[in-house]
Amino acid sequence: MRKPLVAALFALAIAGAGAAPAVAAPVTAAPAAAEQTATEQTAVEQTVERADGRAASPALQAVTLAGTVALSNCSGSVVRFPKSLDTDPALVLTNGHCLETGFPAPGQVIVNRASSRTFGLLNSAGTRVATLRASKIAYATMTDTDATIYQLTTTYATIRNSYGISALTVQDTHPTAGTAITVASGYWKRLYSCNIDGFVYRLKEGDWTWKDSVRYTSACQTIGGTSGSPVIDQATGKVVAVNNTGNEDGATCTVNNPCEVDESGDVTVRQGINYAQQTYQFPACFTTRNQLNLSASGCTLPRP
């Protein structure tokens, strides 16, 4: 997974051994200044009118770092769901393997656990404008998906009014292959742009298995510290996945070297290719006041 070395070792100690998911930012490396600004890294394509007057393709938005956050060893973003209210407590999305208490074990699901973790909120230029604080871990798991959602001590309205930054909206439908996407890393203050190459029936890494994972085209060469970055649809500006891993060395199904397993059980290894976990499942599981309800209609997330 895309996570720091010390954090990975800490997680192994917590788990009492066993494989730990892939990449993270080396603790000796402080987040570097952005190598390129958001506008330099993201091409803005305007809608082109065809001869018959119809639009040839949707306009691609200029994706920036606004709304992303930097964690101590990972990336993340302030997110809302389609039915979230401005007065609701804000949420932060990152990876399950970015959890401050270490990697959740296979089959483990954590819900509504107190947390005071802090997050550095970034503006469009990647400048840290505020420190946000969690009140609890609303949901975290590395089973079927690799995600943690923190509830914050402040609301969306307060964040927007105080810092001029709006939360990113999580799309509530399955993305499609070929979609132009941007992986926005708050840790590195860097954007990676590519396309969704396809979807993986099962992605296996060490002791963990994820379902229906997003595979990027080769242009998204994400690195340690990009774990938890939102994957943003360039046409809608919505979050469609959360970045989590990649095959570094060409090994098969080992830590930092996930493998693809199809419905027949056949295994494929794609060295240098990176992956994310879809997020469209989450909106159905967070209902009134952004509170987790795993029994809600349409909620398919793993339960404790």
Please tell me about this protein's structure.
- By secondary structure, this protein is mostly beta strands.
- It is built from 3 helices and 16 strands.
- The chain has helices at 5-15, 38-41, 156-163; strands at 68-70, 75-80, 89-94, 109-114, 118-122, 128-141, 147-155, 168-169, 180-185, 190-205, 208-216, 230-233, 239-246, 259-261, 267-268, 274-278.
- The strands form 2 sheets. Strands 1-2-3-7-6-5 form a 6-stranded antiparallel β-barrel.
- A hairpin with an 8-residue loop joins strand 2 and strand 3 (89-94).
- The longest helix is centred in the N-terminal third of the chain and has 11 residues, at 5-15.
- It is globular.
- The model is unreliable at 5-20 and 26-57 (pLDDT under 50).
Write the layout of secondary structure elements.
Elements: H1 5-15, H2 38-41, E1 68-70, E2 75-80, E3 89-94, E4 109-114, E5 118-122, E6 128-141, E7 147-155, H3 156-163, E8 168-169, E9 180-185, E10 190-205, E11 208-216, E12 230-233, E13 239-246, E14 259-261, E15 267-268, E16 274-278
Parallel strand pairs: 2-8
Antiparallel strand pairs: 1-2, 1-5, 2-3, 3-7, 4-6, 5-6, 6-7, 9-10, 9-12, 10-11, 10-14, 11-16, 12-13, 13-16, 14-15
